[in-house]
Design goal:
Radius of gyration: 22 Å
Strand content: 15-25%
Order of helices and strands: EHEEEEHEHEHHEHEHEHEEHEHEHEHHHH
Distance between the termini: 7 Å
Length: 396
């Protein structure tokens, strides 16, 4: 078995209030397979915007790199924090008695991956790049569309290209990201070893009494079709328009918006017959809401290049039909495979039309089938066992 180092700046850790997403799950699988796993992250909780507490009960060696805090996801403070993380990771690697056989690093952030690629070459270590988002494009899309902004961030593309070129293997949460990289840099830049591992979801486990509680939710939506949107972003197409003008929501639709970003706190508790606005929900509460709903909404800003996000997999694992505004993507193809959902493009009227096209009775009858289909596609356990196996094969 090998020595493996995982580098991830953002993922929640065991014991924190958010569900485990990717790298701690992978680290646990690798550790159980007999590898020596070191996990490097920051001492800053990206989601809660606070310094992390000590973590002692994890199944792998955990190292936290001190970084400056930041309040906003887009800004120079976050870029500075990423720079400090990159430098701190390399310094920490130099302190280890033996170099790892393989480094697997989350992308983004950007600089740490460029430095890791260089360091891996120096110590004859395999470098595996795992792509979760399209930086710098996703970052750039949130900044003012001014020429000097793009020219300022232009060199970051060179860092991204170098990271991809240095990788011995590359994986992504969606194959769409491979297509984006190939269009940007050319096929010849991509590593030969390419793998797709979706983020995945644990199989929902909810007791019968919890299902009864779910049936009691939203009593003022007694027989209506219920659509739910779950989001943590501050920039969500259509949502601000709905909050400003909730009367436009069709009367035969109950809309539940679960908005975890602080900027939406003022809307929580909105009193409207067609719209409910909720804040952050723990896993059990969110499961009850999803079991009560019929439709899961995937509303994404096309400029952000989001592909196959975790929330869609969460919807499917609960048996929801999905309505998405990302036509022409891997997500659109999966919606076709699911045989229960629709993609649309255009204005908010097209959104309501897409929701109207989902038959409530058919959605209810399809629920069990969708859950089984989703479990074959997005089972967290199966995905990360397969991921760990590919790493084991490469390490030897």
């Amino acid at each position: 078995m090998g020595r493996i180092c995982i580098v991830s700046a953002f993922d929640p850790l065991p014991g924190e209030d958010r569900p485990l997403i990717r790298y701690p799950v992978l680290a646990d699988c690798l550790s159980k397979a007999g590898h020596q796993v070191k996990y490097l992250t920051t001492n800053f909780n990206h989601f809660e915007k606070e310094i992390r507490k000590a973590h002692s009960s994890v199944g792998f060696e955990l190292f936290q790199v001190p970084v400056p805090a930041y309040r906003h996801n887009v800004g120079m403070a976050r870029l500075w924090s990423h720079r400090r993380f990159a430098k701190g990771v390399i310094q920490m690697l130099h302190r280890f008695q033996e170099p790892p056989d393989l480094i697997l690093s989350a992308y983004p952030p950007i600089l740490v991956n460029t430095l890791l690629g260089d360091w891996a070459r120096e110590v004859d270590c395999l470098f595996w790049l795992d792509v979760q988002d399209d930086w710098p494009e996703a970052f750039l899309a949130r900044l003012p569309q001014l020429p000097f902004v793009r020219s300022f961030l232009g060199p970051i593309y060179d860092l991204q290209k170098k990271s991809v070129q240095q990788a011995d293997a590359i994986s992504a949460v969606s194959r769409d990201y491979f297509a984006l990289l190939e269009r940007r840099f050319g096929k010849q830049v991509m590593p030969e070893k390419q793998f797709v591992f979706p983020l995945g979801q644990p199989t929902p486990k909810i007791a019968e009494k919890e299902l009864l509680k779910a049936a009691e939710l939203f009593p003022d939506f007694p027989s209506r079709k219920i659509a739910v949107y779950v989001g943590t972003s501050s920039r969500i197409p259509f949502v601000e328009e709905i909050l400003q003008y909730p009367d436009q929501v069709p009367g035969n639709l109950g809309l539940v918006l679960v908005l975890a970003h602080p900027r939406f706190e003022k809307w929580q508790g909105l009193q409207h017959p067609n719209v409910k606005v909720l804040g952050f929900q723990d896993s059990d509460s969110l499961s009850r809401i999803l079991y009560r709903a019929d439709i899961g909404l995937m509303l994404s800003d096309p400029l952000l290049q989001t592909r196959l996000p975790n929330k869609v997999q969460l919807y499917w694992m609960h048996g929801l039909s999905v309505v998405s505004n990302l036509p022409g993507s891997e997500l659109a193809e999966l919606i076709k495979q699911s045989a229960s959902g629709v993609t649309f493009s255009g204005d908010i009227g097209q959104l309501w039309g897409a929701c109207h096209s989902i038959d409530k009775k058919l959605a209810t009858n399809s629920r069990s089938r969708l859950k089984k289909w989703a479990n074959t596609q997005f089972s967290q356990r199966a995905i990360y066992q397969a991921f760990a196996q590919k790493i084991s094969d490469l390490v030897g």
